[in-house]
Design a protein that fits this description.
CATH topology of the largest domain: Farnesyl Diphosphate Synthase
Low-confidence stretches: 1-12
Largest sheet: none
Order of helices and strands: HHHHHHHHHHHHHHHH
Number of domains: 2
CATH class of the largest domain: Mainly Alpha
Number of helices: 16
Strand content: under 5%
Structural class: mainly alpha
Length: 318
């Protein structure tokens, strides 16, 4: 039984309702969207929670974009794999080239990419966003540190900013400036993750904090590798957190530039993802021995009122 056929047996009621609302009725296509939804539910719990705040007709497309990103991440981050980084890069290239080769026709047998290409066609999402994403995933297999913020930004743009840019058409923007603010928010999300995951990233041989900026606080990569949150490292993390908050604050104007029904979703994502840096502060920057998390209570406290607000908007606008 193929993955597509298997997917047909695990479509949930919620997914069926969402697919019906989106006008997606082809069986293979429905199965592909469902597989993407499962990837989102399993690996992107906060992201998935925020997605549920979108109108049902929008959700499958966001699941598809997540599925694409997650599938590529699996190739890059599979620690159990016996492949070398160069072999992973080749595997990623083969998969990515195959996806891009089908970009115009939309015809593919790939169980994930089928839904992604359908989403691209329906919302006219530019190819360049996917090219940038694949470029950054390849960088992650070859680059282990970044000297400057500008160097890091090349990676972050493709790994995070373009995710927001891909989503904007689905969220029906009312101003072109929505794209600029989506870029800011995507970068803020990624930088917040880097701050939280300093210790975990070191285990992969990666440092995502610009070395020149660390040096301004008397911190070297060797200091990070000692895994002790010294006063100097804490000061360096505070500086990185200030950048996240500046980007977050600037991005807020863009939420009002999205369709009204999409705003509760993105506002919730903003609060929860950028709230990671608040959690880092709450553990006194002890990122090597503790994992900063936004508590379930906090997530529900943000998401439940947002969901109730979203439902009112759906009823009024549909």
């Amino acid at each position: 039984m193929s993955e597509i056929d298997d997917g047909l047996h695990i479509v949930t009621f919620v997914s069926k309702h969402d697919l019906d609302a989106a006008g997606i009725f082809d069986p293979e296509l429905r199965a592909s969207y469902e597989l993407c939804r499962q990837l989102n539910a399993e690996h992107g719990k906060t992201y998935y929670l925020a997605t549920l705040l979108l109108p049902p007709a929008k959700r499958p497309y966001v699941h598809a974009l997540y599925g694409f990103a997650r599938y590529a991440d699996e190739i890059v981050d599979d620690l159990a794999s016996t492949l070398t980084d160069s072999q992973k890069a080749e595997q990623l290239k083969v998969w990515g080239d195959g996806f891009l080769a089908k970009f115009e026709s939309g015809q593919t047998n790939d169980p994930v990419c089928l839904a992604v290409l359908d989403t691209v066609r329906r919302w006219n999402i530019p190819r360049e966003h996917f090219e940038a994403f694949l470029h950054s995933m390849t960088m992650d297999l070859t680059v282990t540190q970044y000297e400057t913020y500008e160097d890091l930004y090349e990676y972050v743009y493709g790994s995070a900013a373009v995710i927001g840019l891909q989503m904007v058409p689905i969220l029906e923007p009312t101003s072109p400036d929505a794209y600029k603010h989506a870029t800011e928010l995507g970068v803020a999300f990624q930088l917040a993750n880097f701050i939280r995951d300093v210790g975990e990233d070191l285990e992969r041989g990666r440092v995502y904090l610009p070395l020149q900026e660390l040096a301004n606080f008397g911190v070297t990569r060797a200091d990070l590798e000692r895994r002790i949150a010294t006063p100097e490292i804490k000061s360096a993390l505070k500086f990185q957190i200030s950048r996240v908050r500046e980007l977050e604050e600037s991005s807020r104007a863009g939420i009002a530039m999205l369709g009204e029904a999409a705003q509760p979703c993105i506002e919730t994502a903003r609060i929860l993802y950028c709230g990671i840096v608040d959690a880092v502060e709450e553990i006194d920057f002890e990122v090597f021995t503790k994992r900063a998390t936004v508590s379930l209570r906090r997530r529900l406290a943000v998401a439940i009122p947002a969901y109730l607000k979203a439902r009112k908007v759906w009823k009024r606008t549909t």
